[in-house]
Amino acid sequence: MRFLEGRKLLKALNWNNIHEEVDQRKGVDAPPLQKRVPAGAELIKLPDFGEVVSHSIPLVKAIESRQSVRSYGKHEINLEELSFLLWATQGVRKVLPNRVASFRTVPSGGARHAFETYVYARMIKGLDNAIYRYVPLDHALYKYRDEEELDNKIIDACLGQKFVASGAAVFFWSVIPYRAEWRYASVAHKMLAIDAGHVCQNLYLACEAIDCGTCAIGAYDQEPVDHLLKLDGVEEFVIYLAPVGKKKRDEN
Hints:
With 252 residues, this protein is α+β, with helices and mostly antiparallel strands. The chain has helices spanning 4-7, 50-54, 59-65, 79-90, 150-157, 178-184, 188-209, 222-228; strands at residues 44-45, 92-95, 102-104, 115-121, 130-135, 140-145, 169-175, 212-214, 237-246. 39% of the residues are buried.
């Protein structure tokens, strides 16, 4: 009985009862497809990743090999590889007229794509050791937060899991619930949980394709993680995260 309240999130609600709640039906403007880039922020345009993909393994092999990896090599990831991973998880294929929705490389209920991506660049060739935000409509990054002891702060926020800050990068996905609530009202929250899985699974497969590993992290302390990314914890908060690194080989 103590779990029944939490299980409600997993159930399909009565769609007929939400129509009067939906802001889209009330004529309210759609929320922006991505967060505004701060004035003065320097966009780092991500490079083409065609050469990286040309050497990738077949999809069947990537699916067969997919597993959670918690031990990473000491090698950097280059910008082409990071570009591919960001494209695979939130890349934009098409923006609909009036910018009401976008089609991306992962599915999302109603094409709402309520997530933002932040990347802690720990060993990314060509990037400073800092947290960056991905700007999907431009396929670019900008430096979001630069401070000391990011490794320790991330480990503490992830309940002492040291491996989270031992690879080349950490992907953080935040959610802006209203992007989905605008169209789906109270049904949105179940859909957002499903959509988060789509994003992380693409990261797993993309990592396998370029000889990297990742591990989905659901065990973290919400407030410290949100604080680390300067999120308000209400209108935007972290929903999932995953470290990424080159697979560990013989380091000798």
